[in-house]
Task: structure prediction
Amino acid sequence: MPTAHPETIAEGILCIDTGLYRPGLAACYLVRSADRLAFVDTGTEHSVPALLALIERLGLSPEHVDYVIPTHVHLDHAGGAGALMAACPNARLVVHPKGAPHLIDPARLIAGASAVYGAEAFKRDFGGLQPIAAERVILAEDGQSFDLAGRRLTFIDTPGHANHHGCILDSLTGGLFSGDTFGISYREFDTDAGPWLYAPTTPVAFDPDLWLASLDKLMALKPSAVYLTHYGRLDAPERHVERLRQSIRDLAALALVEEGRDDGARGARLRAAVGAHLAASARAHGVEYDEARLGELLAVDTELNAQGLEVWLKRREKAATA
Ligand SMILES: [Zn+2]
Result:
């Protein structure tokens, strides 16, 4: 269940801890304009009761929710979308066309997540997934704007972390809800050097070239801030974007060392290489946790990044032999 108290991070924007794994790991956002509401990302099914309680605390009801907008259909972002849509009768789901089929019929998402996390951990950490009626789903086009009582939320197609990823530009604050496209930056890793960022190369559609192009596209919008799912608000994104670009290039490069070497132990070697790379990068940034704590904070992302890089290599190898 969500733990931390929701925090107002910009005008009419609440950042809500969705309660996945540990405080400060995953957020979702509630955007308000007059008495209309929109969620950007939803957390997991376990997060939804707290989201509904929050609406009540604001003196509003689920009828006031106009949009539920998962940035992409990975379960830390969209797992709760079905349950939330079921509770909010006027809401439309706004989602990337490539992600929509998986939220309308979540069978493949459930199977995929069970493969990545293990069936038991998937059930424990994510709950389940409820289907969403197709007629409530809007297939968002690149550049399409959605009106929230005069506030415009604009969908920007940003493949790279996933091929079904979009970011949302907010007209009122000029900020960008970035999902995972602006990387991961946990506040635990802030040092005198500022925030530390790295790329989540999560399965199954990591594509470094598309991702770098998506970052160029986002920076051309000159966002005033980015609102990260992992985690919170980051000001002056132009100061941090190069660090993220470097992380994308570094992770792709350490994977390419393993291209064509699929000998059964490759997954373990990638995991070790990703773990060592992230730890060294954190140290270079001035992060001072002891080895054990650092490993603990990076464990989930190390595993997901290694898996995602191996899937990427397999896709490249298959394309090369096709
Ligand atoms: Zn994520």
User: Anything to note?
Assistant: Residues 7-240 form a domain with the Metallo-beta-lactamase; Chain A fold (CATH 3.60.15.10). The mean pLDDT is 96.
